[in-house]
UniProtKB/TrEMBL annotation, chain A:
InterPro entries: RNA_pol_sigma-70-like, RNA_pol_sigma-70_dom, RNA_pol_sigma-E_actinobac, RNA_pol_sigma70_ECF_CS, RNA_pol_sigma70_r2, RNA_pol_sigma70_r4_t2, RNA_pol_sigma_r2, RNA_pol_sigma_r3/r4-like. One of its GO terms (molecular function) is DNA binding. This is RNA polymerase sigma factor. Residues 101-151 form the RNA polymerase sigma factor 70 region 4 type domain. Keywords: DNA-binding, Sigma factor, Transcription, Transcription regulation.
Length: 169, 301
């Protein structure tokens, strides 16, 4: 039996973080919104078991990352539902730095975007990222190092030398 | 001063926080409704696949790579596989400029584009390399079109986004050269089924307003021009206004072109607004119109 109130509480407490994460791995806010909603819909469908999961948020992040790298997905169901419920609320224009970052992220491989998002948005260590993504720590270090070097080249005012000095342990 | 990557991620997080996400109850209702439809619609998917094959339509199954299992560190619960994604018919082609079609006579074998609810950045086309005079930027509150004798073309819309574009005509321009011209590029999602009516209203407004007082003084003349077939239907509007010298005397005319393209419920307006009195270049307007229509088609496909 699925408990709606516990799902709603989980959604309210995690959806903001998940949307940030989706934005960082997809590089597009609208796509992020779609795939985050899709991931939560999947979680709700199996909430009877998921509600007892010790790390449902980690599970959701994996779904979001997978959907974000799935170029051929068409998430039209949610959009159709929004059509029926009326136009979306007006949203503020994106911040300049966010635009610069998403533009740069779109030029990075998906694995690097995922690793960088887990580090910068969730403050996760190399070991934690390796556990979540299921790859060796050396691979994560490589993703982070290459991703940060590429961002340093693409973002204004970011020094590659300082990035190396502050590299992730 | 050197900046850190984390500054940019903080900005991205703040950006995401400032935008709305539907509530959990709405999401649960949608997920449950979709599950019911899928449970009842398995045979319908098979019928659609067969019908699509029979008509030569290429169908692409969404590349759903199956379930995501819980993280390795927390193996106590195994998530069941999500339902397969529904078959999604893909367009047979993505033509740069589709033949002109009217709403009443859609091309046989093509599907109507969906009505989207929001406009992503990728719906806006990329300018040709080397012809960007300044980075484009999004604006708010600017008129989408000039006035046509006070005709009321306003109506509730789902969403609208506008950006400003600055361009050179040739790639041989020095980096510091001023632009040849600029565009106000607006994409509007109209309510389902209303965009065609809006186009008809616009066509009528231009025809019924051959002349009006120009904002800069003198008389502005406007008309519909033939030529160009973009999207499901398109218009090309010409505006001629007196070209004024610094002293305020008229010296020739300034010609502006506006291309309006409808694809499904989405209308794109490319209003060439010049740069310090330049006139629109027809070849450039046609090129940008093709690019704009293609970007919207790709977004909607």
């Amino acid at each position: 039996m699925r408990d709606a109130s516990s799902f709603d509480e989980f959604y309210r407490s995690t959806s903001r973080r998940m949307l940030r994460y989706g934005y960082a791995v997809a590089g597009d806010y609208v796509e992020a919104q779609d795939l985050v909603q899709e991931a939560y819909a999947r979680a709700w469908r199996q909430w009877g078991r998921m509600s007892a999961h010790p790390a449902p948020e980690a599970w959701l992040r994996l779904v979001v990352a997978r959907l974000a790298t799935d170029r051929w997905r068409r998430l039209r169901g949610w959009q159709a539902a929004l059509v029926r419920s009326g136009p979306p609320e007006a949203v503020p224009p994106p911040g300049e730095d966010a635009v610069l970052l998403t533009g740069a992220l779109r030029r990075l491989p998906a694995a690097q975007r995922q690793a960088l998002a887990l580090h910068y948005l969730f403050d996760m260590s190399v070991d934690e990222i390796a556990r979540e993504t299921g790859v060796p720590t050396g691979t994560v270090k490589s993703w982070l190092s290459r991703g940060r070097a590429r961002l340093a080249a693409l973002l204004p005012g970011v020094s590659a030398a300082e990035l190396e000095a502050n590299d992730v342990a | 001063m050197s900046r850190d990557v984390s500054d940019f991620y903080r900005s991205l997080a703040a950006d995401a926080d400032g935008r709305p996400l539907a509530g959990p109850d709405a999401l649960r209702r949608w997920a449950d409704r979709r599950a019911r439809v899928r449970a009842a619609g398995g045979s319908l998917v098979a019928v659609l696949l067969i019908a699509g094959a029979a008509t030569g339509t290429r169908l692409v199954l969404a590349d759903d790579r199956g379930p995501v299992t819980p993280p390795a560190a927390t193996p106590t619960v195994t998530a069941s596989p999500p339902s397969p994604s529904p078959a999604t018919p893909a367009p047979t082609t993505t033509a740069p400029a589709t033949p002109d079609r009217t709403p009443s006579a859609p091309a046989t074998g093509t599907r109507a584009p969906r009505t989207p609810t929001s406009i992503p950045d990728r719906a806006f086309f990329a300018q040709p390399a080397g012809l960007v005079a300044a980075p484009p930027y999004f604006t708010e509150g600017e008129p989408v079109l000039p006035e046509f004798c006070g005709a009321d073309l306003d109506e509730p819309v789902v969403q609208r986004r506008t950006r400003a574009l600055f361009y050179h005509l040739g790639t041989d321009r020095p980096e510091t050269a001023v632009p040849y011209g600029s565009y106000r590029h607006t994409i509007t999602i109209h309510r389902a089924g209303r965009a065609g009516d809006w186009m008809a209203d616009l066509r009528r407004a231009v025809r019924e307003c051959p002349e009006q007082e120009a904002a800069s003084g003198g008389v502005s003349r406007q008309r519909l021009l033939p030529g160009g077939a973009y999207g499901d239907e398109s218009l090309l509007i010409e505006l001629r206004t007196p070209a004024l010298t610094a002293g305020g005397t008229a010296e020739g005319e300034t010609v502006r072109l506006i291309r309006v393209v409808r694809i499904g419920d989405v209308v794109t307006v490319l209003w060439e607004i010049g740069w310090e009195g330049t006139s629109s270049d027809r070849a450039n307007v046609d090129d940008y119109s093709r690019r704009a229509a293609r970007a919207v088609s790709d977004w909607l496909d």
